[in-house]
Amino acid sequence: MSFDALAFHERAVQTPSHESVDEMRELLVGTLADAGAEPVVDEAGTVLATRTGAGHERGDRAVDGDDHEGAHLVLNTHADTVPPHVPFAEREDGAVVEGRGACDAKGPLAALVSAFLGADVTAGRLTLAVTPDEEVSQTGAAHLAGRLTADGFVVGEPTDLAVCNAARGQFEGTVTIQGTSAHAGTPAEGDNAIRAMAPVLQAMETYDQERGPDEHESLGRATLTPTVVAGGEVPNQVPAECRVTFDRRTIPPERAEGFRADLETHLSQWVPDAMGLRVDLEQREAPYLEAFATDPDEPLVGALAAASGGPVRPFGAATEASLFAPHAPTVVFGPGVLADDEGAVAHSDREYVRRADVATAARAVETAVNTVL
Known about the structure:
- The protein has 373 residues and is α+β, with helices and mostly antiparallel strands.
- It folds into two domains: 5-167 and 291-372, Aminopeptidase; 170-281, 2-Layer Sandwich (Alpha-Beta Plaits).
- The protein has helices spanning 5-13, 22-34, 106-118, 139-145, 193-210, 256-268, 299-308, 321-324, 355-372; strands at residues 40-41, 47-52, 55-58, 72-78, 89-91, 96-98, 125-131, 152-156, 163-167, 169-178, 182-183, 223-231, 237-238, 241-250, 276-281, 292-293, 312-315, 330-333, 339-340, 343-344, 352-354.
- The strands form six sheets. Strands 1, 2, 3, 4, 7, 8 and 18 form a seven-stranded mixed beta sheet that branches. It has a four-stranded antiparallel beta sheet with strand order 12-14-10-15, with helices on one face. The protein has a three-stranded antiparallel beta sheet with strand order 5-6-21.
- Helix 1 (5-13) packs antiparallel against helix 3, helix 3 packs across helix 9 and helix 5 crosses helix 6 (256-268).
- The radius of gyration is 23 Å and the shape is elongated.
């Protein structure tokens, strides 16, 4: 059967997947099955389908243990969306689709499914891998990354048709200061954790100058941003604890545990000896989303750039690409934008994508696949 990427995209945007991906996964599996792709759903909830030079194969052939010869390229994106659901709508005489997931990431999904089904796979393997929880915990991608043996990954996200060969990573964590409580009428008898946090917040501003990684040639500098402050229990008590939540956007070669230890050492020198300081990173089921950078001279980057006509540049957000990049050259690509001149697009109530860009992305990925394989 012929696959209509725009019709599939319309149905996908009309299918809520902000609380559960079950209905969206059913749509995807049915679409692939109708096309003869024989999809499977792995134990982590990822939809997998694989084509080889001999024709369509079951998705479980994509994992380690398959001795099929030739290059293996993986097309990946996700089926879930952030809440709340935003209903499907059209504007500009149907040229623009609005609704939750329009660009993040059902536009890229439609393009990748089209490329997967339409590519001329005469050698090697082509796998479509659609994960269930990119917006939440990335456990599907983490499970997949440890099992796939691939020579390249194309990760579908709204890049405005740019070929994104790098992205910052993201860690979240807390800085906790532990003091001693006392009556507010006799504050000298306690150790005020909130007061002690003031120089620590200033020290967070100097961390990257003193200990952080050097500026990256394409990603720039890392950032460390305090986002939430909590401390104290009642107005007439010296607070024994104060906690700051932070967002860390990383660049290569920084890694999670090294950053945590270095930040704790840097900040501890600003806390009185009678008080304690601890840095903790957010507990995750999946690995942290580390920064990555794929060499712009990699054939996959060049093939997709030539096919799309888009620039090669970094991506503006953390993605599951971070989990695949340690294993093979990885690029992020797709229709739609994270933001425009009016503000946020992805994850906003005005999320949209241009239908023409979905079709362009589909053709570009198909052409790149034909070039690489």
